[in-house]
Amino acid sequence: MHGGGLELALLFLLAAVVAVPVFRRFGLGAVLGYLAAGVALGPFGLGVIANADPVLAASEIGVVMLLFVIGLELSPARLRVMRRPVFGVGGLQVLACGLALGGLALLTGLSWRAALVVGLGLALSSTAVGLQLLAERKALTSDHGRLAFAILLFQDLAAIPLLAAIPLLGHVHGEETVPLWWLALRALAAIAVLVFGGRLLLRQVFRIVARSRMPEVFTATALLVVLGSAWLLQLAGLSAGLGAFLAGVLLADSEFRHELESQVQPFEGLLLGLFFMAVGMSIDLQRVASEPLLIGGGVVVLLAVKFGLLFAIGRRPGGLDTRGALLLASVLALGGEFAFVIFGEAQRAALISGAERDRLVAMVGVSMALTPLLLIVVSRLLPESAPRAQRPFDRIPEQRPQVLIAGFGRFGQIIARLLAAQRIPFIAIEHSPEQVDFMRRFGSQLYYGDPARPELLRAAGAAHVRVFVVAIDDPESNLATVRVLRRHYPQATVFARARNRRHAWELMDLGAQAVRETFHSSLKMGERVLVALGQPEDAAASRAERFRAHDEALLVSQHQVYDDEAALIQTSQEARRDLEQLFAADRGEGVLGKELGAGD
């Protein structure tokens, strides 16, 4: 296709809109739909896209953003808890699968150097496909999901020295190879700059940008941090995804965590879909058709070897039950996107031929396409088992708040203190960066963001919230937030702060329970005034309670006519007369008082 960027964008979007719903309708998952759309559009399908390499390079930003969002879920403390599965289980998986697959490659006639590179390259699994499959099934926080993530994280780290070692193992003439110690020093320096510079600068940058109150600038800053971190580590010869992941970890404990997640996720989803389509485009159907037994046999061997070793590793050092180990093996038995880069570098270093590189890339691509089907088969064959008791060091506590407080001024703070005193888990979101900065100095678990954004609410765990408290003082922002909550979480209970009666009626229209911000405090003060004037405390309390019940009943009755000013005036006058007669009756005065006295 020779059209411009607009035509390409329309084609990609059309393919995604058509293929993904169809595949999900039949229970095949979104990943397989994207891959199928890519195969159809690619140079080996309909030929709409002549060269898939530029699309693949550009779409890798989706993987970068995915790793940034995952980093936001892992604070440094939680990452320390994962060091054993990352380096222990992850290291064992790469070593075992690399040696087994390398040994098989050695039997095909490759040199030991080439076999080592091929074995380790095939030992790596696709981070994007694996995590997306787990996310679709809401299994990222399961036992096998956390172990899969730990293994994938180690694989990303292991790919770095492997890429650095390929020129040393190969026979590249006319080029001066860079010493390995220099590559390692450069990599460590880049990580140090990102970690220490990020800790000192990132929060300050976001605080400054948040004070501008311009959402588009905050979005641009978030994208700048993600892509800048990825570029920095890529410049040092490391994985771009590792840079984005570290940036996410650095911001995991910040007040901007949920806002950043909501800003980045829409871009991540689109670009990740484009990445899967680009992988589908890179599958050489002509190569598969010309050598079906060789390619098919290679795919079967790859999946079988990795599946068996991953099952064994998941059972013993991983501590999973049989079902969890099988699901782990199903998710990670495929090849990975790093294989495209590794085998390209191996060809450039004269370790493998161009034909061998094409065969290996086809095997990896087909394995990525078959993995969603493999996971579906395994999931349906294995019944859901009862959850087992988790080991203390494996458990990573998830944020499951029962209450979400939107707005953290004086009104919201009192509610938060009452909940905290009873150890009821809650989360608070505040749109003012100054208020966030001030309250976090006192240890409040407060996050910056706009609670009227559905993406932010999802990122904050709103699906698990039982009660929403909208304590925002601005009536328009208050109503906007309640509208979003009632639309996306219609079953939840919503309490909303009301500025006045009309604001309360508008909130009642939306199905929220309105609490007038000064009504109860004014009523309490009025009760004290009556006591100061000489009334007994019990009498003053009784009359204040009677006034409260009468006024709240009036609020409900006037809700039906609050758009009719004449009706409002009439009902207010009638209510005032009724209330005066009730209090006169208490004193034995008026018509009601005389009737009550006669009855005595």
What does this structure look like?
- With 600 residues, the protein is mainly α.
- 70% of the residues lie in helices and 4% in strands.
- The protein has 26 helices and 6 strands.
- The protein has helices spanning 5-25, 30-41, 53-72, 76-81, 83-107, 112-123, 127-136, 143-169, 180-211, 215-235, 240-250, 257-281, 285-290, 292-315, 322-332, 338-348, 354-381, 410-421, 433-440, 454-459, 475-488, 501-509, 519-532, 537-558, 565-586, 590-599; strands at 403-406, 426-430, 446-448, 467-470, 493-498, 513-516.
- The protein has a 6-stranded parallel β-sheet, sandwiched between helices.
- The longest helix is centred in the first third of the chain and has 32 residues, at 180-211.
- It is elongated and about 105 Å long.
Task: Describe the protein's topology.
Layout: H1 5-25, H2 30-41, H3 53-72, H4 76-81, H5 83-107, H6 112-123, H7 127-136, H8 143-169, H9 180-211, H10 215-235, H11 240-250, H12 257-281, H13 285-290, H14 292-315, H15 322-332, H16 338-348, H17 354-381, E1 403-406, H18 410-421, E2 426-430, H19 433-440, E3 446-448, H20 454-459, E4 467-470, H21 475-488, E5 493-498, H22 501-509, E6 513-516, H23 519-532, H24 537-558, H25 565-586, H26 590-599
Parallel strand pairs: 1-2, 1-4, 2-3, 4-5, 5-6
Helix pairs in contact: 1-2, 2-12, 2-17, 3-11, 3-12, 5-6, 5-8, 5-14, 6-8, 6-16, 7-8, 8-15, 8-16, 9-10, 9-11, 10-11, 14-15, 14-17, 15-17, 16-17, 23-24, 24-25, 25-26
